[in-house]
Every structure is written in structure tokens, then in C-alpha cells.
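Please check this:
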Amino acid sequence: MLTFQKDDLDALLEQKGDQLLFFYTPMCGGCAKAREMIELVLDAHPKVSIAEMDLNYIPEYARIFEIESVPALAAVKDGEIVAKEYEINNVIDALEFITKFA
């Protein structure tokens, strides 16, 4: 998984790029479990790229993207959030979202 900072996200949006994003916070136990499931999917799909971002460092984007909770997977197409998923309870949840938007 890639690690994005605010500048990376700014550039992605400015360039109207496509990217899967994983939003988390370090003290979130569900986030740690979701990361494990996402990494299992990425192991099976090595060409897929997901960038993770600590939501504590980008509160303005949490408001702009209307991120309601963590963990959250989001799909960016042409620099716009087109989908979000908060239910990452198992590998199937992660796989379905990732393969739909990768």
C-alpha cells in the first residue's frame, strides 16, 4: 500500500487522476483489521494500487469528501470521489469494492 500525504492528494486531484484511497486513524482497531483484509486483496492483485492516508492529518479533506467514519475506502476517478465504502468487515467486502473501482 502506498502512503499518501496531503501534497500527494492535492496533486492527484489537481491532475484529475484515478486512485483508490484507504482512510484510517492510528488508534482505530477496525482500521487495523480493514488494512489486513485490504493487504490480502492486494497480495492477490499486485497491479492494484491503494494509497492510505491518516485522516488526522487531512481534516479538511474529511469534510470535503464527507468521510463519515474510518475505516473508509474511496474511489477517485478524474479527480473526484465517486464511491465510498465503510463496511470492510471481511476480505469479500474489500475485494468487491477494490475490483469494482481498480
